[in-house]
Amino acid sequence: MSDIETFYDVMRRQGITRRSFMKFCSLTAAALGLGPSFVPQIAEAMETKPRTPVVWVHGLECTCCSESFIRSAHPLAKDVVLSMISLDYDDTLMAAAGHAAEAAFEETIEKYKGNYILAVEGNPPLNEDGMFCITGGKPFVEKLRHAAEGAKAIISWGACASYGCVQAAAPNPTQATPVHKVITDKPIIKVPGCPPIAEVMTGVITYMLTFDRMPELDRQGRPAMFYSQRIHDKCYRRPHFDAGQFVEHWDDENARKGYCLYKMGCKGPTTYNACSTVRWNGGVSFPIQSGHGCIGCSEDGFWDQGSFYDRLTTIKQFGIEATADKIGWTATGLVGAAVAAHAAVSVLKRAQKKNEEA
Amino acid sequence: MKGVSDERINAPVRGPDEIFEASRLTGDATREDLESIRRRTSVYVYEAPVRVWHWVNALAITILVISGYFIGSPLPSMQIGEATSQFVMGYIRFAHFACGVVLSVGFFGRIYWAFVGNRHAWQMFYIPVFNKRYWQEFFFELRWYLFLEEEPKKYIGHNPLAQAAMFTFITLGITFMMVTGWALYAEGEGQGSVPDTLFGWVLGLVQNSQRLHTLHHLGMWSIVIFAIIHIYAAVREDVMSRQSMVSTMISGHRTFKDDRIE
C-alpha cells in the first residue's frame, strides 16, 4: 500500500458515498469533453492511483491566479485541494508558515522526486541576479530551478508564468521572464489568462491526475480543450458582428441593445480562451456579457499592444503613438502628394523641352 | 499581297510612296508617318496568361484592400433588419476571403507561367543582385525619375528599377500578404483544418494574433502605396518614355516610338 492515499480513499474518508463519487466522475468527464466511456476510466484511476503531489510556488505575481482557483465551481476547489491533489506546498494556501513551510517544501520535492507536479504562479525576474523577487530569503529564480529539477511536469499558471504579463511589459526593468524561458528541460503546460478561468485551472489539474499525462496542447503549449478557439468564435454577440451592428459609443443605443463591441477595441477576435463558453464565477458572466470588450489578457504581450480600446497594435518606433492604419494613411498621403508633385514637374519639363526644340 | 508580306525593315524594296495604300486612303497620312510605320515594329512581351493574371490580380487587390479596410474599420452600424437576417459584415468578409483565394490561386498560376511562359514572364521573380551593370542601370533609371537624365533608355520588359519594385512589392509583398492572410483565415477555420496545417505556424511565430493583424494591415498599406506609384509610373512612362506601357498590358505588344539603337 502506497503511503499516499488514493482519491477514492480520501473521498470515502470524508463521508462521500460511492454514488456521489460516480456522479463526480461523470461530471468531470463531461467537463473535460469526454464521452461516457471515459467515466469508468476516471473512476478506476481515482480508485487506484495515489494522489499526485503538487508543489505550488509563487514568483512575481498578484495572486489573482490563486484567487481564481479557489473559486472553482466544477469541480469545487475544496474537492481539488482536499481530495484530488495532495497540495503539499503552497505558501499562500497552506497553514504552515516560515521555516515550517520551507521544510515542507524541501521534504516534498525530496520525497516525491520525479513524481510531483510543479505549479508556478508568477515568474522569476532575472535582472540583478534575481534580487527583485525574494522568497524564503533566496531569489525566486533559484527556488524555481530547484523545484523544477525533480518535477514530472510544470504548469505555468496565468499570463505571468506563461508570457510575462505586466511585470514583463516594456521596458521590463526587472527582466521578468516567463517560466518556459528559464526551465527548458521539462514539459510545460501554459494556462494563460489574468487570471485563468477557475474551471480551466481545475480542469487542467483533473485531466493530468486522471490520465497521468498532459492534455493535448496547441502550438503555443496551451491545453487545446480550453484555448483552441478565440473568444470571438463562440461569442454570443457574434451575430451582431456578422450583421455589422456595433457599439459606436459606450453610452449609445447600440450598447444598450448589446451589439458587438468590435469598434470599442474588443480583443475577442484575437484572444484564445474559453471565456465565452465556460464564463466566470460559476458561469454567471464574462467581460463581454457585462458590456466591456475583451482586453486579451490571455495573449502573449497583451500589455504592449497599446490601448485596450484599439484593435491595432500601437507602433512606437515612430516616436509618436501610431497604429498601422495611421501610418498607412499618412504614408499614402505623402506618396500621393509626391506623385502629384512629380507629375507636375514632369509636365513642366516636357513643356520646357518642347519650347527649346521649337 | 505576297510581295508585301515578304518585305522586311532591313530589306525595303519599295519607297514609302508605294506602300500602305490603305493608310493613305483616309488622307491624313503624311510622308513622314508612312516612313515611320514602315520602320517601327513591336515586341510581344506579355502573353495572354500574364495579362489575364495582371487584371484579375488588380481587381482582386482592389476588392481585398477595400473589404480588408472595412473589416478593420467597419462601416457605421446599420439597422436593416434583425441580426439574423442582416449580414453586412459577413458579406464584406466573404468578399475578402473569396478574393484572397483568387489572389492565391492566381499567384500560383503566375509562378507556373514563369516556368512555361516566355522569358519576360520570369522577370518579376528575381533581381540580378550580383550583376554590377544591373545596378548601374538601376541608378540610371532612378536619375531619369529624378529629372537628372535627359532621355530614358529603351526596355522590352521591366526597366531595372521597375523590376526591383515588382519583385519587392508583388513577389515578396503578395507572398507576405498570402502567408499572413491565410494564417488569419486559419484562426477562423480552427486547429487541424487545412489552412491551419499549412499556415498555423505563422501565428506560433508571431505569438499574438493582434500583432499578426497589425502586420497584415501594414502589408496592405505597402501594396496601396505600390499601386499608386505603379499606376502613376505606367501612365507617365506611356507619355514620356520611348515605348508603350498601358496598352502593352492589354495587347501584350511593346511598341517603340523611335528606331534609334541606344
UniProtKB/TrEMBL annotation, chain A:
Subunit structure, interactors included: Heterodimer of a large and a small subunit.
Database matches in NCBIfam families: hydA, TAT_signal_seq
Binding positions ([4Fe-4S] cluster 2): H232, C235, C260, C266
Protein name: Uptake hydrogenase small subunit
Localization: Cell membrane
Chain ranges of the NADH:ubiquinone oxidoreductase-like 20kDa subunit domain: 62-207
Enzyme class: oxidoreductase
Family to which the UniProt record says this protein belongs: Belongs to the [NiFe]/[NiFeSe] hydrogenase small subunit family.
Reactions this protein catalyses: H2 + A = AH2
Binding sites annotated in the UniProt record for [3Fe-4S] cluster: C275, C294, C297
Keyword Zinc: no
Keyword check for Zinc: no
Pfam assignment, any one: NiFe_hyd_SSU_C
Names of the cofactor(s): [3Fe-4S] cluster; [4Fe-4S] cluster
InterPro entries: Cytochrome-c3_hydrogenase_C (IPR027394), NADH_UbQ_OxRdtase-like_20kDa (IPR006137), NiFe-Hase_small_C_sf (IPR037148), NiFe_Hase_small_N_sf (IPR037024), NiFe_hydrogenase_ssu (IPR001821), TAT_signal (IPR006311), TAT_signal_bac_arc (IPR019546)
Chain sites annotated for binding [4Fe-4S] cluster 1: C62, C65, C160, C194
BP terms from Gene Ontology: anaerobic respiration
EC numbers: 1.12.99.6
Lineage: superkingdom: Bacteria
PROSITE patterns in UniProt: TAT (PS51318)
Span of domain Cytochrome-c3 hydrogenase C-terminal: 227-308
Automatic annotation (TrEMBL), chain B:
GO biological process, any: respiratory electron transport chain
Annotated Cytochrome b561 bacterial/Ni-hydrogenase domain residues: 45-252
Family matches, as Gene3D superfamilies: Transmembrane di-heme cytochromes, Chain C
Pfam family, one: Ni_hydr_CYTB
Source organism superkingdom: Bacteria
One GO CC annotation: plasma membrane
Membrane topology: Multi-pass membrane protein
Compartments in which it is found: Cell membrane
Residues that span the membrane, as ranges: 52-71, 91-115, 164-185, 218-235
Main location: membrane
Keywords on record: Cell membrane, Electron transport, Heme, Iron, Membrane, Metal-binding, Transmembrane, Transmembrane helix, Transport
InterPro entries, alphabetized: Cyt_b561_bac/Ni-Hgenase, Di-haem_cyt_TM, Hydrogenase_cytochrome, Ni-dep_Hydgase_cyt-B
Family, per entry: Belongs to the HupC/HyaC/HydC family.
PANTHER family according to UniProt: NI/FE-HYDROGENASE 1 B-TYPE CYTOCHROME SUBUNIT, NI_FE-HYDROGENASE 1 B-TYPE CYTOCHROME SUBUNIT-RELATED
Name of the protein in question: Probable Ni/Fe-hydrogenase B-type cytochrome subunit
Organism ancestry: Bacteria, Pseudomonadati, Pseudomonadota, Alphaproteobacteria, Rhodobacterales
